[in-house]
Write a structure and sequence with these properties.
Helix Hairpins; 0% strand
């Protein structure tokens, strides 16, 4: 599955796993950097999903106001 296909929940769960591994420590510098980069990518995916959801809510609220 590509990053573009990840749903919010999948990206969030994988991000939580990345954070747990980083917090546990004991990784090489290279592994830590790779996990950090993956975490950054996952955070961006989550942000995009949340921004899209926010836009949909705002559009729905605007449409409801027009109907009133």
């Amino acid at each position: 599955m590509t990053d573009e296909q990840l749903g919010y929940e999948q990206a969030r769960d994988e991000l939580a796993d990345v954070v747990a591994k980083l917090e546990a420590g004991g990784l090489s510098l290279e592994d830590s950097l790779a996990l950090w980069e993956r975490g950054e990518a996952l955070a961006k995916i989550c942000d995009r999903h949340l921004a899209g959801a926010r836009e949909r809510v705002e559009a729905a609220l605007a449409a409801a106001e027009k109907e009133s």
